Amino acid sequence: MALHEKDKIMAKMDEDIYTSTDLRISAPKNKIPEKESRTEDVYSIIHDELMIDGNSRLNLATFCSTWLDEGIHKLMDECLDKNMIDKDEYPQTAAIEERCVHMMADLWNSPKSKNTIGCSTTGSSEAAMCGGLAMKWRWREKMKAAGKDTSKPNLVTGPVQVCWEKFARYFDVELRQIPMEHGRLLMNAEEVLKRCDENTIGVVPTLGVTFTCQYEDVKSINDALDELQKSTGLDIPIHVDGASGGFVAPFLHPDLVWDFRLPRVKSINASGHKFGLSPLGVGWVIWREKSDLPEGLVFNVNYLGGNMPTFALNFSRPGGQIIAQYYNFLRLGKEGYRRIQQACADHAKYIAGKIQKLKVFDIIYDGQGALPGACWTLKKDANVGFTLYDLSDRMRSRGWQIASYSMPENRQDMVVQRVLIRHGFSRDLADLLIADFERALEWFEKHPVNNSNSMEDAKVFNHN
Ligand SMILES: *Cc1c(COP(=O)(O)O)cnc(C)c1O
Questions:
Q1: Residue 115 sits in the same domain as residue 260
Q2: Counted domains in the chain
Q3: Which of 1-10, 166-175, 226-235 has the lowest average pLDDT?
Q4: Of ligand 1's atoms, which has the minimum distance to the CA of residue 274?
Q5: Which of 244, 245, 323, 379 has the fewest CB atoms within 10 Å, i.e. the most exposed one?
Q6: With a 6 A CB cut-off, is 392 part of the ligand 1 pocket?
Q7: Ligand 1 center–CA 423 separation, angstroms
Q8: Atom of ligand 1 nearest to the CA of 206
Q9: Are the CB atoms for 83 and 90 separated by under 8 Å?
Q10: What is the pLDDT of residues 83-131, one digit of tens each?
């Protein structure tokens, strides 16, 4: 460096981030810039832009983890560079994934939890594809063996999360979704039986329906399918979508029989990143027994010189989320999970009670008996100057993100509001939330909204 340029270069290095050239022009949005920029400058630009996203902890619309302890932050950082698919290169990550599979198989009462098979996925959506494909393959093998037509598979569900609609469309399966009706927001045995025939690859009850947080009654569906088999010979398996409930029911509702205790339940999916308390990016699907996953779907990969069976739609994926799942299992144990889910359920019940006292809402789900959350609708005769969409919007001005949406078929007439209470929530936050609801109602009394269609767009809501 020429000595006379020293001052110029020093000045550039000492420059305040916000007076640097990069922060005094608009950030590139459509073309990759030609030149490099300073790390700190670019970090600040992006960090600051993300402030607009809001605070995920105040997002009561999501089911996913928004609070993670120090141990998880550290392990995630340490695993940032590890690809979970490279079983041979990262054998301990692979071994830990296996341990998680067996721990969950045991949690869900698989008869041979140490030997059964399962895998991690990016979330319940990929897990649902895997579970659905296994059902389709098993059904096809059975039909072929009987010399029957295999061109018209169908799947029977209640009001499901969109991943099952995707499964049906992507993999050419007719979705026989039981619509909601007045007085019935879940599937029931009678409606299931009406839709089952020899082309039914399986029935999918949901443990923790996204629209209401409630559990569908797996046991009664199971019993009805047992009866169906007795009278017709049709043997239809159950896959339980336990995206949220898979990590809630075993701790809060241990007597509820919904899992592999029922022999007809052949597979279960759950989201590690929801009530599994792991960071975003991990789901699980577990089969009751090894033989329940058709061999044709399994690929064998090299693993410590041997073979390891794998089944997934994805290839490269980070290993940290899987490691964090194992960390949670060891760190919390069953007792820790129970305490956390119970605390959340207690807060949800408290919030539902307070919402009821506001007099203008009908509680649909009060946080008890299923997921830690609550859900309500406006009373028919409430006669208030706002819609639930307006109320969500008003709450957003205080940072809260609260889902309002219309129900699916055939209850599109019904608009509901829902909060999910997750690890990282406290009674104090619940009190602040209620105070903000009260403040919002007072505000609407003074400023009623005339155009109740102003929030039409909010009806497009993603049930994640
Ligand atoms: C969230 C959810 C899914 C999708 O799970 P992801 O982990 O977000 O992929 C599927 N089914 C139900 C019932 C859910 O709640």
A1: yes
A2: 3
A3: 1-10
A4: 7
A5: 379
A6: no
A7: 18
A8: 13
A9: yes
A10: 999 998 999 999 999 999 999 999 999 999 999 999 999 999 999 999 9
Helix, strand, or coil (residue 25): coil
Which of 62, 121, 125, 248 maximizes ligand 1 atoms within 8 Å of its Cβ, making it the mutation to test the pocket? 125
Structural element, H or E, at residue 236: none
Model confidence pLDDT, tens digit, residues 186-209: 999 999 999 999 999 999 999 999
**315 C-alpha to center of ligand 1: Å?**
20
> Tokens in use for 261?
């205790």
Residues 355, 361: contact at Cβ < 8 Å?
yes
Distance 121 CA to ligand 1 centre (A): 12
Q: For residues 421 and 58, give the distance between their C-alpha atoms in angstroms, rounded to a whole number.
A: 10
- At residue 110, what are phi and psi to the nearest 5 degrees? -65, 135
Contacts with 396 (C-beta within 8 Å, 6 or more apart), sequence order: 54, 402
Confidence check: pLDDT of 258 > 60? yes
Decide whether any atom of ligand 1 lies within 6 Å of the 124 Cβ.
yes
Ligand 1 touching residue 241 (CB < 6 A): yes
pLDDT for 3 equals 73
Residue 356 lies in a domain: yes
**Domain span at residue 12?**
3-53
CB 45 within 8 A of CB 56: no
Distance from Cα 128 to the centre of ligand 1, integer Å? 9
C-beta neighbour count of 365 within 10 angstroms: 22
**Could you write out the three-class secondary structure of 362-423?**
EEEECCCCCCCEEEEEECCCCCCCCCHHHHHHHHHCCCCECEEEECCCCCCCCEEEEEECCC
Please enumerate in sequence order all residues whose Cβ is within 8 A of that of 29, keeping only pairs 6 or more positions apart, or say none.
Answer: none
Ligand 1 neighbourhood includes 283 CB (under 6 angstroms): yes
Instruction: Report the DSSP pairing between strands 415-420 and 403-406.
Output: antiparallel
* CA 372 – CA 238 distance, rounded (Å): 25
Q: What is the pLDDT of residues 24-42, one digit of tens each?
A: 999 999 999 999 999 999 9
Choose the residue to mutate in 64, 66, 160, 163 for probing ligand 1, maximizing ligand atoms within 8 Å of C-beta: 163
Same domain, 218 and 310: yes
The pick from 66, 160, 161 for probing ligand 1's pocket by mutation, whose C-beta has the most ligand atoms within 8 angstroms, reads: 161
In-domain check, residue 66? no
307 and 419 part of one domain = no
Which amino acid residue places its CA nearest to atom 3 of ligand 1? 124
